[in-house]
Each structure stands twice: as C-alpha cells, then as structure tokens.
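Box 3.1 A note on notation
Throughout this textbook, protein chains are presented in two layers. The first layer is the amino acid sequence; the second is a token string describing backbone geometry. Keep the layers aligned when reading.
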Amino acid sequence: MHAAPTTATEHLNIVIVGHVDHGKSTLLGRLYADTGSLPEGKLDKVRDICRRQGKEFEYAFLFDAFLEEQEQGITIDTARTFFKWRDRHYIIIDAPGHKEFLKNMISGAARAEAALLVIDAQEGVKEQSKKHGYLLSLLGVRQVAVVVNKMDLVGYRQDVFEAIEKEYREFLSQLKVTPERFVPVSAKLGDNIANKSTHMPWYQGLTVLDSLGLFRKETARDKQPLRFPVQDVYKFDARRIIAGRLATGRVKVGDKLVFSPSNKSALVKTVEAFNTEPVPTEATAGQSTGLTLDEQIFIERGEIASHEDSAPVVSTTFRCNLFWMGRRPLEAGKKYLLRLATREVECEVAIIHRIIDASDLAARETRTIVGRNEVAELTIRTKAPIAFDLYGDSEVTGRFVLVDQYDVSGGGIMTEAVKDEHTVLREEARRRDIAWVKGDVGADDRARHFGHRAALVLITGGRHTGKSFLARRLEGQLVADGRHTYLLDGANLRRGLDADLVDENSGEIIRRFGEVARLLIDTGLIVVSTTNAFGGADHQAIRTLVHPAPVIAVHMSKGEETPPPNTDLAFAGPKDFDALAAQVIAELKTRGVLAEALGAKPQFHYSI
C-alpha cells in the first residue's frame, strides 16, 4: 500500500463512469484504501463487519461507507474530496445519475477536468460503455483513461485486453475523444491500481494512480486569456468607468483592449477600485473592477474585453449541447432569450441534430421539440452577433442559459462556432478596426462639436414608394436643424468607385458601400441612404461593416405589407413626407443619436 502525503496543493475534478456492474465502486474503494485516504480504522472496521455478517469483504463496501460518512460531515476537508495522492486532491464529481451529472456539468455547478472510464473485461464493450463515451464527448471532457477491470476473470489474457482497446479506441475516435491510455486492472485484487501487477508482465504501462498523476490540471484562470464581460458603464467625476468582473486573465494599465463584438479598441488608462490604497494598476481573474480608457469609445453592456491577440469568437450561429429543464418543450424556430455572461440577446433553435434522454442516455428520434430532462445537440442562431468561446477553451464565456417566458429553462455549452453569411465581412471589419489609424479627434469630440452622434439611416422599399423623397426631405430637415448629414446614394458609387465592377460583383459592391459608409460615419456624419439596389440580406452585411454605429432601418411601401426583419419604422400608403421625416428624427433621438438641444452639453447614450 502506498502512503499518501499529509498535504496536497492542487485540486483536480475527475469523474469515474461505468456500468453499475463493471466495478466502479470497487475501483473507488481500492483507491481510497491504497492512498491512505480513509479515516483511521475504517478499513479494519468494514472488514470486521463483513466477517461478523459472513460476507466476503469487498472494496466497494468502503465506497458506500465513505459516502455515508461524508454525508454526515465528519470526514476530510470537503464533502467531495475523496482521496489524496502525492500533491493533489482528487475530487470525484458526485452524480447519482446521468441526469444530475449532465445538469451539474452544463450549469457549471461541477466540471470534470478528466475521466476514468471503467469497462468489464469479461463483458467487453457493451452499449452502456458506448453511452458513457458519448456522455464524456457531449460534455467536452477530453482527458480520458480507460480502465479495463476484472482482468482476473479472463485469466489476465493480453488478447482480451487488446481486443477491447482496439474496439473502444475506434468508437471513441468517432466522438473526437482520444483516450490517453488503457490500463488492465483487477480492482478487487489490486492489480495495477497503486502497484504494478505481477499477473500481467506483458503490460508495461502505468498504474491507475500514475495515470491520474498525468492528467493535466487546467490552466489557472489568471493565466488564461483575458475575458472581461462588461457589466455596465458609469459616468463618475467626468470619467467613464467600464465596470465588470474579470472571468479570466489579467489586465493592467497600458494594455490595449479589444471589445467584442463591436471591435472597438483602446488603451487602459486606469484600473479603478473603491477606497483602496495604493491605487491599483492591475486586476486579475475573479476581481470586480472598473477600467477607464485613453479615449471615450462607446461600449455596451454585454461586450467582452480581451487582448487583441486572443479575442473570442464572434458569430450569430453556434453548435451546442443543451440540457432542457423547462416546463414547456424547447421548440425549433421559437424565440428565446439567450444569456451569456452579461449579454442578453434574442435567439432561436435553427437545427435539432440529436436528442438524448439524460436518465438513460438513450437516443430519441430526431424531432422538432426537446422535452424536459432531455439533452440535445443543437444549432442556435442569435438575432445579433455575440462574442463567445468554446466551452473547452473558456468555461465562463462558453456556457449559456436559455430563458423561456421569464423562466431560466435550459443550460448549454458551446461546442462549435458556425460560420454565418457575414463571417468573412465580420472578420474583415475586425482586422480593419483593430488596425485603424486614429486621429487626435475622437467620436466624443465630434459628438460634442456637432451636437449628435454618427449613425446610418437605411431606407428600403419597392419602386415608386417614395424612398428618395423621404431621404431628401430627411437630409434637408436635419441640415436645417444644424445636424451634419449626408445623402449617400448607391448610384453615385456605381458611377465612380464601382465603375470597374459588373452586376455579378454584388458582394464587392455591397462591401465597398459599407466601407464608404463606415468612413463617413467616422467623420461624425449622419448618413442617409436609400440603397435602392440592395435587399434585406445586403442591409445586414452593411450593418456588419458599420457596427457598432446605430443603424435605423426604414421601410416604405405602397400598401400594407410585412416589412423586412430588423425594421425600425415602416410607412405604408399615402405619405406626408415632412411628418415621416419627423418620425425618423424622433427615432434618432430615442436611439441616443441626437441631443434634444444643440445649446446644451449633451449626455449621449445608445439604447441597448
């Protein structure tokens, strides 16, 4: 028996999965005993009870006794620290069933960093073993060692072990899980648990305990890439303080930050703290703090700050694993509210790929709803771009919940970023904005001087609906009010900047239009455009290129018709263009683009 040290400096969360009859409890009991982690006298006490009851002693009894004592709160430091070995506490995630385990993993109440998967050598790879492999894949657990137990019952045969290893490796490879090693053991007799077995000289690999020692601890949160979800922005003593809690990483004065998904960037001017001496110059993971920047860029709640060389993913579409707990079924195509860190955005389920019953891991037929206590592999599409990480890269920014009619009804983890139709434009805009050469006059300076912020008004509609009349009237009224406004007609670009393009180059035509609009917005102008040649999808591309500047979408029609998605104002039938222009101006004020009066020193905001 190995003696365990009295102190351990590191914690590792592991899960041990396997069929109820494959010896999981026996393996755990043996680990407790062989690492000296049992309370003093417990092993002898259980042996004595077995002797008096005429039972053969089993190490599984130690597992049951240990659990009972933990529930009574009379054992070692934490209720889930089952054993210590060398410089680690090994914490077994207690999950009485698949459903509880999945719920805890996805909600973040517990997270396995590694797994031991137990297979009975006599039974071989059964359906339950495959289900457990799928379970680990579902939860993104990538560090796995497979323990082939009960080797004594097959005469310690090498060919039996190798056949199981070959079959199970092939199965796990389909799930993108690569086991780090297979260990042949007899938990009952102690073969290859803590000590090398003399019954299997053909096996030259590691014992179970040595295998555990090679599992890698995830990088400490303060050593991970910076993730700073913005909680709020406060005006205080003429300073604009960006407040939030660092999920991972560190930030210090002088760091260049990029805010996603807006692509805005600036240098950290100060790190703020309340009643703290000396004034801090750095903040680290887990701390709630405030930051001021060297320029007054507009930042919204829900954005995520990072260093420019390690920004999160930005998309409107992602693949995920989700545990559904709602009273009503999850439905494809239905609108839900997605919450990720401090961000809230409307979303819908685009595709249901697979449904699993969490109680028994049985696959259900593909359908358009997900019932309570079922796990689903989904593709979700959000109404607006969001910043996130894959769960395996960052737990905090890779986990989300879905809200159904004010109830938190599901929890999920991101497993794959899916490119949408604007991914290329979004990445181009990110590279452009990060490398943008800025002058000494910023957006706030222009807003104070002009009396308004920059924005883009896109006017859509069919032929002869009055788009051009409204655009001209709106430009005239804004200029008459002293607002710096410019009418950008796509036809003018076609005759000049786009003269080298043909109609088939519609993607490049849209890209150039968006870039010109972005330049005009950077000068502080309110840009008005009828964009006659562009459709609704083109408008979304333009939004991507000018983001985060406000875009007000106005739709014109001859009669009653359904306006395109994301339309802010819709006008139908006979028109009083002066009145319509006044409504657009009112919307600009509501969106925080226009100050109420030019003579006042405006306090601008954008509605979220």
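Residues 1-6, 69-79, 597-608 have pLDDT under 50 and may be disordered. Residues 314 and 347 are 15 Å apart (CA to CA).
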